[in-house]
Amino acid sequence: MEGNAVNADYFVSLHRNSSPYPNQYTGVETLVYNRYGEAARLAGNINARLEDVGFANQGVNERTNLVVLNQTEMPAVLAEVGFINTDADNRLLDQRFQEVAQAIADGILETVRST
Predict the structure, then answer these.
(1) Is the pTM higher than 0.90?
(2) At residue 78, does pLDDT exceed 80?
(3) Between 20 and 30 A from 47 (CA), which of 1, 40, 63, 75?
């Protein structure tokens, strides 16, 4: 795992979610290995800042079977930044891309500053 090799303090993996049917779901969801701890706090901060931009906050959810989360030696999150097959999420990402990127960075900084 690359994050382990460089002794990173945090590992943030960015993705787009999807659903079986177009426009079925909307919002941001961030996945963690364990819902209690530093990664969960990081995930909550990222979600809150993305909610400020306009995404529905679908919460922080535990996924123990994801390599990107269960093989890292530092707090790790996988942020699902909107649904790729939901028109409203795509519009939000397209129209406010810089704000979305800044929101993710702000969520990370909020976590770093509070440790």
Answers:
(1) yes
(2) yes
(3) 1
